[in-house]
Amino acid sequence: MTSLVMSLNGLSQSPENLSLWYDKPASDWMTEALPIGNGYMGAMFFGGVEKEQIQFTEGSLWAGGPGASKDYNFGNRERAWEYLEQVRALLADGKLKEAHALANSELSGLTHKVKGGPSFGDYGAQVTMGDLFVEVLSANGSVEKYQRELDISNSIGKVSYAQGGINFERHYFGSYPDRMMVYQFKSDKPVSYSIEYVSPHEDINETFADGMYAYHGKLKDNEQEYETRIKLDSDGLFEFEDGKITISDASFVILYHTAATEYLPVYPNYDGNDFKAINDAAFLGIEAKSFEKILADHREDYYSLFNRVSLDLGGDANQGLPTDKRMLAYNQGTIDPGFEQLYFQYSRYLMISSTRPGTMPMHLQGKWNNSLDPPWACDYHMNINQQMLYWPAEVTNLSECHLPLFDYMKSLVEPGKITAKEHFNMDGWVVNTMNNAYGYTAPGWGFPWGFFPGGAAWLCQHLWEHYEFTQDKAFLVETAYPMMKEAALFWIDYLTKDEDGYLVSVPSYSPEHGGISSGASMDHQMSWDLLNNCIKASEVLGKDKEFRAEAIKIRDEILPPQIGSWGQLQEWKEDVDDPNNKHRHVSHLFALHPGNQISVEETPELAEAAKVSLNARGDEGTGWSLGWKVNFWARLKDGDRAYKLFQRLLKSTENQGTDMVSGGGTYPNLLCAHPPFQLDGNMGGCAGVAELLLQSHTGIIELLPALPSAWENGEIIGLKARGGYEVDILWQQGKIKEAIILGKPQSELLIKYGGSTKLISLDQDGSIKLSHLDFE
Predict the structure, then answer these.
(1) How far apart are CA 629 and CA 388, in angstroms?
(2) What is the β-pairing status of strands 237-241 and 225-234?
């Protein structure tokens, strides 16, 4: 990677400075424990002195599905579509209450109660695999020099302290290449340990032999089988009794830990994975490797992703205060750009740790879940949350981390086609608000929140974005375009002509806000976006001329964004927006972000209407809502307003209530507080920072489009722009000192800075160097 050749006032970020650290153990899983992961598994460590707790799960451990209930039907009501025209007729007659009642009773999806399962019945939930407890048996006395740390520069957790004249050190990390979680315990004098795995699931078999512990278990509701194994390396003596491993007189203990389940993402049964063979292969792979080699391979893999992007805003990323105290000081007005750098990079760390090729995609909590019945099932929520989780993937140079989402989407197409037929009698495929690991693509079991057939259209934007950023035509041919076209077929069927000749979405609900409608604006914006991207993809591939012509015709007849009676961007076809409503969903601004139907340059009146709507909704919100608003204001080129919301996102939750509207902010472990913890706010905030510094959605690469005045000096290295370009920017006193753009040799592109746009050509080596003088 090419970096800037100049450095301003020592603004070159030192990667070893990127750490979260604390001066006491964690007492609460959600707010204080620290996350590590290898893509397949996620673990949270507490750093306890007498007893360490490492809670963990594996991404495919899912309750519910066809194994939980003979009546499981992917949520579908057979022939529900027979009521669709009745709902539409009631809406045409202005009978909104009756239309909603009928839609809620006949178009909603189904779940069935399951004994011993989560509260959502056979819909299921992603569930914890349990806890490891490692107890120190032979140390006592007061604790000194305690520190608990998450070093995100090296992707390693650390605990150190002294007790009773003995110095203790621990190191934890998740290795993607070796499919291992690794936990090392050291002391400068021999001590004894007790190690126990506590499972909330049914025990099939538990063994310990030759230093290898294995637990074969199954879930209670669907009998999904799994196995977790731990290989121990130590200079101490082992004993195993009543499920506990005791290690005596050990100066070190290393636990090599992996897990797998029988889940396979294949419709309709979702089972058949040889999980024991998976674990066998993982341990065979490390058989001849030392701890140092496993750690080195982990670091090399991690650096290959994490070190692509660095951000320096002119502050120390590892200030002397513990992170929880540092956040409180920041909230009280301490200027701390290093803390903002840390938050940005922490989000990238979380993405690398929780979504890698061949793994399940991130869910609402990434890969971290300690519950058998978690909030919203720890599922894949498609009306904003799942998409927001992946917003940083392309722009922050982590394209490979995007791939698990696409694999998951493939698994949804076949059941999604059945839902399109059963609920709408339409071609194509759909997903709605809540999606599980078992093909649940039907509307949710309650309206208005459950009805969101636009989920697949929004997901397909990610396919096109991945192509736009990578220029991977093979991906477009083999993966993206077929799914995009199938999703478009549904909207070509579903949209209907209104009295003015426009195509509208009937019935529709604006996500989680308001009642039934004859046209929620978000539906129109998403279907427009999907068709527009299909048209561009068809042109790139030089195929499907007839389909392209139909897509153009439909796209151009969709009701465009409307400006309402008080200057707002309308949330519905009907002009009924309440200027005093403060709801967290601002879904009707999809066309501004992440869509590109509205922009300051090309549709200034609509951009102004979007601003009116945002001002009316206000600057409060839950975690993900704040993250989205940062991106909205960045697209509106108001960096200071976006920065204000970014600061609000980083607000400490200490002394806050848990009200979902007035809550939000960040927990002491820097995980986003919806509340409860959801990872989407972290990812939305990270994407928002990138959006402030670089934009390319209009086909023009704009440098520092919405730079906050608080970030007067800074440097960003390695951001990606659409077209396959990589961008480094160094700025001083709010002006570009130097920018380097990398891409295809001798390619031409439009660059914008400070209101001036120019056409440039990259050199023969595929680079160009610019400064603010080039735009004057």
Answers:
(1) 12
(2) unpaired
Alpha-helical regions (H) of 448-520 = 455-470, 473-475, 481-494
Structure-block tokens of residue 322: 């513990």
| C-beta of residue 715 within 8 angstroms of C-beta of residue 729 | yes
Neighbours of 445 (CB within 10 A): 17
- The pLDDT score that the predictor gives to residue 4 is 42
- Which residues does 29 contact at the CB level (< 8 Å), separation at least 6? 44, 46, 55, 370
Given this model, what pLDDT does residue 2 score?
37
CB of 468 within 8 A of CB of 480? no
Query: Average pLDDT in the 48-73 region?
Result: 97
Report the Cα–Cα distance between both ends of the chain, in Å, rounded: 29
Buried b (16+ CB within 10 A) or exposed e, 21-59: bbeebbeebbbbbbbbbbbbbbbbbbbbeeebbbbbbbb
Burial (CB count within 10 angstroms: exposed 0-12, middle 13-18, buried 19+), residue 689: buried
Percent residues over pLDDT 70 in the chain: 96
Q: Could you tell me how far CA 142 lies from the centroid of its own chain? A: 41
- Specify the length of the chain in residues: 776
Gap between the Cα atoms of 685 and 672, Å rounded: 10
Residues 647-691: tens digit of each pLDDT: 999 998 865 444 333 467 999 999 999 889 999 999 999 999 999
Q: Considering only CA atoms, which of 104, 110, 108 is closest in space to residue 122?
A: 110
d(CA 64, CA 479): 28
- Residue 507, preceding peptide bond in cis (omega within 30° of 0): yes
pTM value is 0.96
β strands within 658-746, DSSP E: 694-695, 701-703, 714-721, 725-732, 735-742
C-alpha 381/C-alpha 508 separation (Å) is: 18
- Evaluated on CA atoms 628, 634, 640, 646, the torsion sign reads positive
